[in-house]
Design goal:
The protein is α+β, with helices and mostly antiparallel strands. It is built from 5 helices and 7 strands, in the order αααββαβββββα. It is globular and about 60 Å long.
Protein backbone atom coordinates (compact mmCIF):
# COMPACT_ATOMS: atom_id res chain seq x y z
CA UNK A 1 0.00 0.00 0.00
CA UNK A 2 1.40 3.38 -1.00
CA UNK A 3 1.82 6.18 1.53
CA UNK A 4 -0.74 8.29 -0.36
CA UNK A 5 -3.25 5.43 -0.31
CA UNK A 6 -2.73 4.98 3.44
CA UNK A 7 -3.04 8.74 4.06
CA UNK A 8 -6.32 8.86 2.11
CA UNK A 9 -7.66 5.89 4.08
CA UNK A 10 -6.77 7.54 7.38
CA UNK A 11 -8.31 10.83 6.24
CA UNK A 12 -11.54 9.13 5.24
CA UNK A 13 -11.61 7.20 8.54
CA UNK A 14 -11.10 10.43 10.49
CA UNK A 15 -14.02 12.18 8.76
CA UNK A 16 -16.45 9.26 8.63
CA UNK A 17 -15.80 7.17 11.74
CA UNK A 18 -15.53 4.08 9.53
CA UNK A 19 -13.25 1.22 10.49
CA UNK A 20 -9.82 1.02 8.88
CA UNK A 21 -11.01 -1.83 6.65
CA UNK A 22 -14.13 0.08 5.51
CA UNK A 23 -12.06 3.17 4.72
CA UNK A 24 -9.48 1.12 2.80
CA UNK A 25 -12.20 -0.61 0.75
CA UNK A 26 -13.72 2.76 -0.11
CA UNK A 27 -10.34 4.16 -1.15
CA UNK A 28 -9.54 0.99 -3.14
CA UNK A 29 -12.77 1.50 -5.11
CA UNK A 30 -11.93 5.04 -6.18
CA UNK A 31 -11.33 5.78 -9.82
CA UNK A 32 -8.39 8.07 -10.68
CA UNK A 33 -8.79 11.55 -9.23
CA UNK A 34 -11.94 10.88 -7.19
CA UNK A 35 -12.20 12.42 -3.75
CA UNK A 36 -12.03 10.15 -0.68
CA UNK A 37 -15.21 11.87 0.52
CA UNK A 38 -17.60 12.04 -2.46
CA UNK A 39 -19.59 15.18 -3.10
CA UNK A 40 -23.36 15.05 -3.22
CA UNK A 41 -24.43 14.41 -6.82
CA UNK A 42 -27.34 16.86 -6.81
CA UNK A 43 -28.37 20.13 -5.20
CA UNK A 44 -31.31 18.26 -3.62
CA UNK A 45 -28.89 15.87 -1.87
CA UNK A 46 -26.77 18.81 -0.69
CA UNK A 47 -29.86 20.54 0.74
CA UNK A 48 -31.02 17.38 2.52
CA UNK A 49 -27.61 16.74 4.08
CA UNK A 50 -27.36 20.37 5.20
CA UNK A 51 -30.88 20.32 6.71
CA UNK A 52 -30.21 17.02 8.51
CA UNK A 53 -26.92 18.16 10.00
CA UNK A 54 -28.38 21.53 10.98
CA UNK A 55 -31.31 19.83 12.70
CA UNK A 56 -28.95 17.49 14.55
CA UNK A 57 -26.85 20.43 15.69
CA UNK A 58 -29.76 22.68 16.69
CA UNK A 59 -31.56 20.23 18.93
CA UNK A 60 -28.68 18.73 20.89
CA UNK A 61 -29.43 19.00 24.56
CA UNK A 62 -27.52 16.01 25.88
CA UNK A 63 -24.00 14.69 25.60
CA UNK A 64 -23.40 11.38 23.87
CA UNK A 65 -20.46 9.10 23.34
CA UNK A 66 -20.34 9.95 19.63
CA UNK A 67 -20.84 13.40 18.08
CA UNK A 68 -24.56 14.00 17.47
CA UNK A 69 -25.30 10.38 18.45
CA UNK A 70 -23.84 9.18 15.13
CA UNK A 71 -21.22 6.38 15.20
CA UNK A 72 -20.19 6.61 11.57
CA UNK A 73 -21.07 8.30 8.29
CA UNK A 74 -21.05 6.60 4.90
CA UNK A 75 -21.08 9.33 2.26
CA UNK A 76 -22.20 8.47 -1.27
CA UNK A 77 -22.95 10.75 -4.22
CA UNK A 78 -26.68 9.89 -4.18
CA UNK A 79 -27.22 9.53 -0.44
CA UNK A 80 -25.75 9.57 3.00
CA UNK A 81 -25.91 6.83 5.62
CA UNK A 82 -25.63 7.54 9.33
CA UNK A 83 -24.96 4.82 11.92
CA UNK A 84 -27.09 5.74 14.94
CA UNK A 85 -25.62 5.22 18.41
CA UNK A 86 -28.70 3.95 20.27
CA UNK A 87 -32.48 3.67 20.39
CA UNK A 88 -32.68 6.93 22.34
CA UNK A 89 -30.69 8.79 19.68
CA UNK A 90 -32.78 7.18 16.91
CA UNK A 91 -35.97 8.40 18.56
CA UNK A 92 -34.51 11.88 19.07
CA UNK A 93 -33.23 12.08 15.48
CA UNK A 94 -36.57 11.00 14.00
CA UNK A 95 -38.44 13.43 16.26
CA UNK A 96 -36.37 16.37 15.04
CA UNK A 97 -36.19 15.38 11.36
CA UNK A 98 -39.72 14.25 10.50
CA UNK A 99 -42.15 17.10 9.85
CA UNK A 100 -44.83 17.72 12.48
CA UNK A 101 -46.70 20.49 14.23
CA UNK A 102 -44.87 21.51 17.38
CA UNK A 103 -48.03 22.76 19.10
CA UNK A 104 -51.47 24.23 18.49
CA UNK A 105 -49.93 27.28 16.86
CA UNK A 106 -49.40 25.24 13.66
CA UNK A 107 -45.63 25.84 13.60
CA UNK A 108 -44.10 23.03 11.55
CA UNK A 109 -40.78 21.57 12.64
CA UNK A 110 -38.54 19.07 10.88
CA UNK A 111 -37.30 18.76 7.31
CA UNK A 112 -40.11 19.70 4.90
CA UNK A 113 -41.29 16.74 2.81
CA UNK A 114 -39.06 14.18 4.55
CA UNK A 115 -40.68 10.75 4.85
CA UNK A 116 -39.62 7.23 5.80
CA UNK A 117 -39.79 5.43 2.48
CA UNK A 118 -38.18 2.09 3.22
CA UNK A 119 -37.41 -0.21 6.12
CA UNK A 120 -35.15 -3.24 6.38
CA UNK A 121 -33.65 -5.43 9.10
CA UNK A 122 -31.21 -2.85 10.46
CA UNK A 123 -32.09 0.45 8.81
CA UNK A 124 -34.68 2.90 7.62
CA UNK A 125 -34.43 5.12 4.58
CA UNK A 126 -35.83 8.62 4.39
CA UNK A 127 -36.39 10.75 1.31
CA UNK A 128 -37.74 14.17 0.53
CA UNK A 129 -40.90 13.62 -1.51
CA UNK A 130 -40.40 14.26 -5.21
CA UNK A 131 -36.61 14.52 -4.92
CA UNK A 132 -33.80 12.00 -5.42
CA UNK A 133 -32.15 12.96 -2.10
CA UNK A 134 -31.96 10.17 0.48
CA UNK A 135 -30.83 9.59 4.04
CA UNK A 136 -30.30 6.13 5.49
CA UNK A 137 -30.24 5.63 9.26
CA UNK A 138 -28.80 2.27 10.28
CA UNK A 139 -27.28 0.28 13.08
CA UNK A 140 -30.30 -0.91 15.08
CA UNK A 141 -32.54 -3.97 14.73
CA UNK A 142 -35.90 -3.47 13.01
CA UNK A 143 -37.85 -3.78 16.28
CA UNK A 144 -35.87 -0.85 17.77
CA UNK A 145 -36.51 1.26 14.65
CA UNK A 146 -40.25 0.47 14.98
CA UNK A 147 -40.08 1.42 18.65
CA UNK A 148 -38.26 4.69 17.85
CA UNK A 149 -40.92 5.50 15.23
CA UNK A 150 -43.71 4.78 17.72
CA UNK A 151 -42.03 6.93 20.36
CA UNK A 152 -41.68 9.75 17.85
CA UNK A 153 -45.34 9.43 16.85
CA UNK A 154 -46.47 9.74 20.47
CA UNK A 155 -44.54 12.99 20.88
CA UNK A 156 -45.61 14.59 17.59
CA UNK A 157 -48.84 16.05 16.35
CA UNK A 158 -49.43 14.88 12.74
CA UNK A 159 -49.57 17.51 10.03
CA UNK A 160 -52.96 16.28 8.81
CA UNK A 161 -55.45 14.22 10.83
CA UNK A 162 -55.04 10.53 10.03
CA UNK A 163 -51.67 10.98 8.34
CA UNK A 164 -48.29 10.63 9.98
CA UNK A 165 -45.36 12.55 8.57
CA UNK A 166 -43.46 9.34 8.16
CA UNK A 167 -45.87 6.99 6.50
CA UNK A 168 -48.71 8.87 4.83
CA UNK A 169 -51.55 7.18 6.68
CA UNK A 170 -49.95 3.84 7.49
Amino acid sequence: MSALHQDLSLLRRLYTGESVQQARRAIDGLQGGESPIPEAASPAQQRLEARVLLALLEFRDIYTRFPLGINAVRPEPHGISLAVESWERASEILFHLLPSCASDNEEVQGVPGLRITRRDRTAIELQVLGEPARLRLFGLPARLWRSAEASTGRRQRPLHPGHTAWGLGE
